[in-house]
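Long-time lurker. I teach an intro course on protein structure, and each term I like to show students one example going from raw sequence to a predicted 3D structure in token notation. This year I'd like something fresh instead of my usual example. Would anyone be willing to generate the tokens for the chain below so I can use it in lecture? Attribution to the forum is fine with me.
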Amino acid sequence: MNPHSRIAAPRPHGSRRTVGPVTRLGNRHAARPLARSVATLVAAIAAACGILAGSVAPAHAGLFDFLTSPTVTVISNPGQLAPRESSQVIVRASAPARPGTVVNLVTAGFLNLGYSVVGTTKLDANLEARLPLPGRDFLGSYQYWAQVPATGAHQEGNSARFSVTIASPPKPVSPTCGGANPTRPDGTPWRCTYNDEFDGTSLDRKWWRPQTAFQTGTSSRYACAADRPDTISVGGGVLSLSLVELPTPVAACANNQTTRFVNGQVMHYQTFNQTYGKYEVRARVSSLRSPGAQTSFWLWPNNDTYGPWPASGEIDFAEMYSSAPDNVFPYMHYLLGENDPKTNRNVPGAVCPISFGDWNTYGMEWRPGQIKILVNDQVCVENNYSTVGGVQGQYGPFDKPFYLNLNQAMGTTGNEYDPNVVPDKVTTQIDYVRVWQ
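-- Reply from a regular --
Happy to contribute to a lecture. Here you go:
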């Protein structure tokens, strides 16, 4: 016998019988309560959706709005920004979105894989919104779109994608270099291309980028470059860069290592660079006469055109060590060609005196085939450079754009930090930075 078959016993007329989940009534009169229940349910749904008998539903509150998506249109976007420059994106949505509906600004992930929300706000009474667009650190073109997330009232709506390009800011307009007008050896004037006199109360982040991914010191004791008020500050007409010992360890390093030591470094990375020219920095190094601190002013190549360090070059036009506080140690890193001190051919470095505890000027004059390092306007070292075998051309690697770096670092091997001797805070003050071409 089929276990799913059965014979129903006779039942009284009008009685209710059930087969599975469906309830059946024995006569047409018993169907009236069910019909009234269905009508009541439909009326409740209609009321919830704003539908009244004899009226037309508003366009924004249709019964089936939950099946549709709002149209999202980007009215304006910045198109191009400088590194770390923030802005906004203006968008407009259509029904069934309503005032107060959340709208997101979304950006594509790495290699356009996935996405992340970078800004959120709500639609106003005109179904428009101004979405915050945060700054980015690196040059390039980035994809964005606006998104109205799905709710119980409608499906998700997305705008068309648009691009925002992060580009270096235009060169400074008519910088003055403090009124200084130095001349070249042939008597022609250098042209000022950039200067910062640090006359304000905060770092000009349009040009200066704090370093936050670098460590100095040794493997057993190190400081991490950090963007903090106690490591980088502007006031009183100077930029102050400090090496600081903290009371407790912090996760300040780029790799999430903890340390009790942080230091300040700023640079013109992706903001200002040039090939050849004259640089000058007026600074007062800390009065520390014990090992542990290092101050450096140097130029680093925009790109590794000639290969990894030192093939693409580095110009340290000032390096000061607290273990030898009466001198500056400039040095040029590259693949040196044949050395001849008599003709200043490939003489990469020197040791030159400075006035300890006082203000000194550190600079360089950089021309095709020659770099002069100057201290207090006096030539410290002159290098008529060339590379080994001439593999990098006549003037390589110093024929490409370089950018400026300034830092107060922890000392390394031979100048190791001693917490029993070094004070909790060591500071280098910088009066100005001036660049000509």
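Some talking points for your students: The first strand starts at residue 17 and ends at 19. The first helix runs from residue 32 to 48.
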